[in-house]
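Record 1 of the preview.
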Amino acid sequence: MAGAAEAFATKEAATKLVAGHSYAILIDSETSSSVANIGLAGSASARFDNVSVTVGNSGGGGGGNGGANSLTDSRLTTLMQSSLIGPAILKKGKRIFVKAKCPAKVGRACRVTVQGLLKKGKPATTKRTAKIAKGKTKQLVLKVKPKLKGKVAKKKSLLFKESVKAGPAKATVYKRLKLIKR
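->
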């Protein structure tokens, strides 16, 4: 009977999990028997008790799984949906002032890069990067590209691309803001 207890000892295996995916556990077992033990028309069955799965934080990057305190790319993207605040202000047709916020729920400072776009893939301004403390707001000044001053001046709103990095997590969001001319 000692050999039987050893056969059911704890078995461990590690794999990388991705949030939103479904997984199945496959238990592979091997049995042997002689015809004398179960008879010619007999059958055998096996049941497995106490099978468990433990998911933990391996301290990995921001894209996959993690513990309650880790920040994932998708969580950061969700938090950043409301990070550009209020309207953008166009002053003298040359500079655009926009406020960016690092949500307190991020739990650390954010490195934020903002750029004004006429449409996705068509930049209208220079990029500006700033480090913003968690829960704080900073005003960023973007220079309008000289060739596009006329087009930007005619716009009622402008699309902004915001790339954010907080620890290992990265996110890029697009948001359209009302453009006020002064």
